[in-house]
Amino acid sequence: MTEKVLILDFGSQYTQLIARRIRELNVYSEIVPFNKVPELDDTIKAVILSGSPFSVREERALHPNLEPLIGKRPVLGICYGAQYVAQHFGGRVERSETREYGKANLATIHKPEGLMTGIEAGSQVWMSHGDTIKEIPEQFELLASTADVEVAAYGSKPGAFSEPVFCIQFHPEVYHSLDGKALLKNFVIDVAGCTGNWTPAHFIDDTVAALQAKIGDDRVLLGLSGGVDSSVAAMLLHRAIGDRLFCFFIDNGLLRKDEFEQVLKSYDGMGLNVKGIDAKQEFYDALAEISDPELKRKAIGKTFIDVFDREAKKLTNIKYLAQGTIYPDVIESVSVHGPSVTIKSHHNVGGLPAKMGLKIVEPLRFLFKDEVRRVGTELGMADHLIKRHPFPGPGLAIRILGDITPEKVDLLQKADAIYINKLREYGLYDQVWQAGTILLPVQSVGVMGDERTYEQAVALRAVNSTDGMTAEWSHLPYDFLAAVSSSIINNVKGINRVVYDISTKPPATIEWE
């Protein structure tokens, strides 16, 4: 039985961070919309109420039903959650005279035990709120204050409820709250009594058993990409059902240079039943003269489905389609604001289940990207698969701005191979979360020898991130960038200019299309 902490999502930008911090304590956490709370069973050890972009004083405020929670499990309210608890039990919440946003310090610790154990006055915290709690309900007592916010933390008085309730105005989940992890540990481990035994090995054992129970003696089909998500999903399924797992790896002509052969080779010795499918020309035909990024994605998705479905019909008795869906995708689809307005149409297998009449199995649907990597390591997978940079589903199609031709793909593959190989040569590949080269739809003047050139330009992109939700451009050394630029221009005929993208996400995205 896996114990869990339930996180009620009120739409905060930090909700995923709360889940991540809890999991760093080796305790499984799960995010659910505030209005879709499951019945509390023995696995749910505690409940956390997240922050929110809304105000509890607004008409559009989000109103959770606290009755099934308060007194039933230990509860921690963060920011909006703290304000809502205060208002619900008769406290007073008002608009702040001065909005407190950013770093602050806990000036006074009124109760240095329980939630605040080991946290001393002066501890730096991160505030982000427009409302402030002026009065706490009579069932509660003050725990901590900053110089500007008297009610920085409060908790239920002993005996007020069957289970304790704690509320904090600051965000312990962000790195700027220096004792945030200690506070969350106090709540999850010491107050809620979680054992902290949710490890990669524990996850593998539980998942393999669950897959065996779900799939039984049936057969499963999985589309591999060479990336860490599909590779780890394949290894988990292989451990659960052995040779009843069938894998396709489709060459859409939009992979990196020599990637089709390298990926197939990387699966050698892993015991997987993998079939490589060369469909380059079908994809090129489908993409002919298409420049719009969304139309490119749709053309790739449709062609993928057609190829996949055609090859799948050569197999018999396939009952399940496996996908490498990970937790950020799941969270997005059950957001408190409803499903995303724009569904990522490049999720290649999006239309397959309905077309093929297959049931879905998603071994990784509750893991973040870094957790997937740790599971892969526990499974004994090779580093070059575990540490491989993320690569977009549409591949180089969204790194070639404008229409796609085999000649442009070849040009970009050569430039990109130089960039990626140089990252490895300089020992920088593992320091970067994702890197790639973009072929720009412009030509520029250059001089090579005594000749004037008018050739293509490429942009180099490298970012650092944890899960791709936000990203900072990588501060690569100048001598490295100079070496890459020189090598591309000297060795790839048709490119005479190299630029480096220093945009963060947000406001920019990681990919250019």
Helix content: 25-40%
What count of structural domains? Answer: 3
- CATH homology superfamily of the largest domain: Class I glutamine amidotransferase (GATase) domain
The major sheet is characterized as: 9 strands, mixed
- Unreliable runs, pLDDT <50, ≥5 residues? 337-349
Organism: Neolewinella aurantiaca
GO cellular component, one term: cytosol
Active site: 79 (nucleophile), 171, 173
Catalytic activity: XMP + L-glutamine + ATP + H2O = GMP + L-glutamate + AMP + diphosphate + 2 H(+)
Fold topology:
Layout: E1 4-9, H1 15-23, E2 28-33, E3 44-49, E4 75-78, H2 80-88, E5 92-109, E6 124-135, E7 140-146, E8 153-156, E9 165-168, H3 180-191, H4 200-215, E10 219-224, H5 228-241, E11 245-251, H6 259-266, E12 274-278, H7 280-287, H8 293-312, E13 318-322, H9 327-333, H10 352-356, E14 359-361, H11 369-378, H12 383-386, H13 406-425, E15 434-448, E16 451-464, E17 472-473, H14 478-491, E18 495-500
Parallel strand pairs: 1-2, 1-3, 3-4, 4-9, 10-11, 10-13, 11-12, 13-14, 16-18
Antiparallel strand pairs: 5-6, 5-7, 7-8, 8-9, 15-16, 16-17
Helix pairs in contact: 4-5, 4-11, 5-11, 7-8, 13-14
Describe this entry's structure for a reader:
The chain is an alpha/beta fold and about 525 residues long. The chain folds into three domains: about 5-190, Class I glutamine amidotransferase (GATase) domain (Rossmann fold), CATH 3.40.50.880; about 200-385, HUPs (Rossmann fold); about 405-500, GMP Synthetase, Chain A, domain 3 (2-Layer Sandwich), CATH 3.30.300.10. The protein contains 14 helices and 18 strands. The protein has helices at about 15-25, 80-90, 180-190, 200-215, 230-240, 260-265, 280-285, 295-310, 325-335, 350-355, 370-380, 385, 405-425, 480-490; strands at about 5-10, 30-35, 45-50, 75-80, 90-110, 125-135, 140-145, 155, 165-170, 220-225, 245-250, 275-280, 320, 360, 435-450, 450-465, 470-475, 495-500. Helix 4 (about 200-215) crosses helix 5 and helix 13 (about 405-425) runs antiparallel to helix 14. One of its GO terms (cellular component) is cytosol. It comes from Neolewinella aurantiaca. It catalyses: XMP + L-glutamine + ATP + H2O = GMP + L-glutamate + AMP + diphosphate + 2 H(+). Keywords: ATP-binding, Glutamine amidotransferase, GMP biosynthesis, Ligase, Nucleotide-binding, Purine biosynthesis.
